[in-house]
Design brief:
Helix content: under 10%
Structural class: mainly beta
Number of strands: 14
Radius of gyration: 20 Å
Strand order of the largest sheet: 1-3-4-6-7-8-9-10-11-12-13-14
Strand content: over 45%
Number of helices: 1
Largest sheet: 12 strands, antiparallel, barrel
């Protein structure tokens, strides 16, 4: 028994040393991914060969209906130069109340491709393609989404525009077969040049309602990303929807962590 315990301690020590010895491929807090912490992103992929494990908890306190909480595990991988692959599967506490795409337990696969680095004449541009496979609760058909992304810097302030259109593979009941979404956001490094560990993000968005005959969901979100260590980024955000259906969000909140390898 003593030998087994000693081996276990040695194995854990070796694993820890190996992890520490990995190159410092941090997920930069200034590289913005969707839902970390708010629903927008910039036009840049993580570097080739880098892996990020991301996770978060997001709550939606609705004006009508019960509060829904989502757990958001995700893996991102810099598969090629300027190309990021993402695997995700959100889990919700109220899975039977969901409409539209992104049902609880759906297998989500996304690819982000960055066309260029920003120049004096052109913003950085990227395109995202996403597929949701119907592996979740009450999910039918394969859903797809295409999003265009622009990022432009004005001094230390960066402006981001996201515009996308999603198609439901098998709409149910009053669900729309397709919905659009648009986001305008700004990000700004706090404390620069004395410190470069925090990025503040503010966005305003509108997206077509999932059911026919309802108003667009329109709201604002504020978030911050904090570089805890060279490999770990923490994030948190809050938001609200001031226009939309009766069950629109009164308060949105997110807390998450990203770890780079």
């Amino acid at each position: 028994m003593k030998t087994t315990g000693t081996r276990m301690v040695r194995w854990l020590l070796c694993a820890w040393l190996a992890w520490v010895a990995l190159p410092a491929l941090a997920l930069d807090h200034d590289n913005l991914d969707p839902n970390r912490p708010i629903g927008m992103e910039d036009a840049y992929a993580i570097p080739k060969g880098e892996i990020g494990l991301e996770g978060g908890v997001r709550f939606n306190d609705r004006r009508q209906g019960r509060t829904n909480v989502a757990f958001q595990p995700q893996i991102i991988y810099g598969a090629f130069a300027n190309t990021q692959i993402e695997i995700q599967g959100d889990l919700f506490t109220e899975p039977h109340s969901l409409v539209g795409a992104n049902k609880s337990g759906d297998f989500h696969l996304g690819v982000l491709y960055n066309f260029n680095t920003e120049t004096l004449a052109l913003p950085a541009m990227a395109v995202r393609v996403e597929v949701d496979l119907p592996t979740g609760v009450n999910s039918q058909g394969v859903d797809t989404q295409l999003t265009g992304i622009l990022t432009r810097s004005f001094g230390r302030l960066r402006v981001h525009l996201n515009a996308g259109y999603g198609l439901l593979g098998s709409p149910q009941g009053q669900e729309r077969p397709g919905t659009y979404r648009a986001v305008a956001a700004v990000s700004y490094p706090l404390g620069y040049p004395n410190s470069f560990r925090d990025t503040l993000i503010v966005s305003v968005y509108t997206r077509q309602s999932d059911l026919r005959g309802q108003q667009n969901h329109t709201g604002v979100e504020v978030g911050i990303r904090h570089q805890l260590t060279s490999r770990v980024v923490l994030d948190g955000g809050l938001g609200t929807e001031f226009l939309g259906p009766a069950d629109r969000a009164a308060l949105l909140g997110t807390a998450g962590v990203s770890v780079g390898f």
